[in-house]
Amino acid sequence: MVFHTSDTTGLGLVVRGVKNFVETKVFHMFFEILVLLFIGALFGIVFGLLPGIHPNMLVLLIPFFISLNLEPFLFLSFVVALAVTNNIVNFIPSSLLGAPDSGNELSVMPGHRMLLEGDGYNVIRLTVLGSLGGMVFCAIIFPLVIFIVPFLFLAFTPFIYAILLSIVGFMVLTEEGNKKAVSLFVFLLSGIVGLAIGSIPVDNTLVLFPVISGLFGMPTLVLQIRQKTRIPEQTGKELFLSKKLVNSSIVSGSVSGIFSGLLPGVGSSEIASLVSADKNSHSFLIKLSALTTANIVLSVMALWLIGKSRSGISILIEQVTPVGFSEIIFVLIVALVATGIASAATLFLARIFINTINKVNYTLLSLFVIAFIVALVVIFTGFYGAFLLFVSACLGIFANLAGIKRGIMMGVLILPTILFYLS
C-alpha cells in the first residue's frame, strides 16, 4: 500500500507533515548540529586516548575556524562535544598509563594504585559516574549558577591572593613532619618555573603542555620503568558504593568545579584534594571527574556571566562567536548529549584496554608514551619546550621520591597568580 502526500486520511496527513518538516530549514539545521556533535565527540575520543593531546590545542586553529564561517550553533556543537568527550575519555590514559592532561594530574595516583590492585576497570567506572553526575547536577542548578557566580566573582576578586595563600598553606601544613619544609621548597621551585615561563619564547597556548607533562606525567612513567612495574591480571571485582558517598561526592565535586573556575591558577586536582579529606580513592575519583566536567561547562558560562575566559576552549569560543543566554542553553544540551556518548565510549574502550594491558610489556608501553610525549613537545614547542619538560620532570621525580602531595607543584601557576594579584 502506497501513501501519497495528497491523501486526506490521518496517516496521509502525518506523512505529509513529516515530509514538510524534513524539507524545512529547521530540520536541516538540527541535522547539521547532530552531525557536528558526533564529529566533535569522535575527535574528543581520539584526543582523549592519545596521551599529551589536549583540546586546548584547538586555539591554534582559531584562524581556521574563523575562515569556515560556521553558524554559531554548529561551531559550538563541535567544540563543546569535543571538549566534554575528551575530558571523560582522557581518564583512561590519565589514570591507567600515568600520562595526564591538565586538570587530571592527581587522578594518576589513586587510579594507578587501583590498577596495580587488579581493579583498573572500576577506576574508569568511577570517573564516568562522576562525569555523568556532575553534568546532570550542573544542568539542575543552572538557574542558581546564573545568580551566584557573578556575585561570587565580585566578592572573591579582591581576596584571590589570600585565598590562594590559604590553599597553599593548607597543603603544606597537612604534610607529615619534615615533609612540610620539602613541600614548601617544591612549591617555591615550581613557582619559579611558572615565573620563568613568561620569558620563554613558546606560544602561551602551549607552554603548559611540557610543564604539566613534566611535573605530573613523566615522573610516574619514569619511576614505573625504574621499578619494573608489572600489571596484574584485572579481576573485575564488584564495586559497592553507598548512595550517600556517590551523591555527596558528585555534589561536592560539582560545586568545587564552579569555585575552581573562579580561582585563577588553581587546578581541578588541587580543589578535589582539598575536598577529599577522607582520603577515599573511590570518593576522590568521583569528585575529580565531576569537578573537571563541571569546570568545562562553567568555563563557557564564564564568558557570559563574568566576561572572562577560563580555558583554551573558552578562548576559542570567545574568538569565534559571542555567547549569550541562548548559546549557554545550547551548550548545556550539547554537553549533556556528549557526556552520554563519551560515557558509553569510555566504558567500552576501557574494557578493551583492561583486558589486554596485563598481556603488554608495561615497561615498553611506558617508554613508548614517554617518547610520544617528548616528540609532541619538540614538534609543538621546540627546544625551549623540551628544556621545560626536562626541568619539570626532574622536579616531579624529586617530589614523587620525597613522598609529598604532588598537587603542591601547581605552584607553577599559583605563585605567579598570587604575585600578580598582590601587585
Describe the structure.
The protein is mainly α and 423 residues long. The protein has one domain (15-422). The chain contains 18 helices and no strands. The radius of gyration is 23 Å and the shape is globular. Residues 99-107 have low confidence and may be disordered. It has helices at 10-22, 25-49, 62-68, 72-89, 91-96, 108-116, 120-140, 142-156, 160-173, 179-197, 208-226, 243-262, 268-274, 281-305, 312-320, 325-357, 362-402, 411-422.
**Compute the gyration radius: what is it?**
23 Å
The tally of helices reads 18
Shape: globular
Helix content: over 70%
**Quick one: how many beta strands?**
0
The overall pLDDT average reads 80
Sheet with the most strands? none
Class of secondary structure makeup: mainly alpha
Quick synopsis:
This protein is mainly alpha-helical. The chain has one domain.
Compile the SSE list and pairings.
Layout: H1 10-22, H2 25-49, H3 62-68, H4 72-89, H5 91-96, H6 108-116, H7 120-140, H8 142-156, H9 160-173, H10 179-197, H11 208-226, H12 243-262, H13 268-274, H14 281-305, H15 312-320, H16 325-357, H17 362-402, H18 411-422
Structure characteristics:
423 residues; mainly alpha; 0% strand
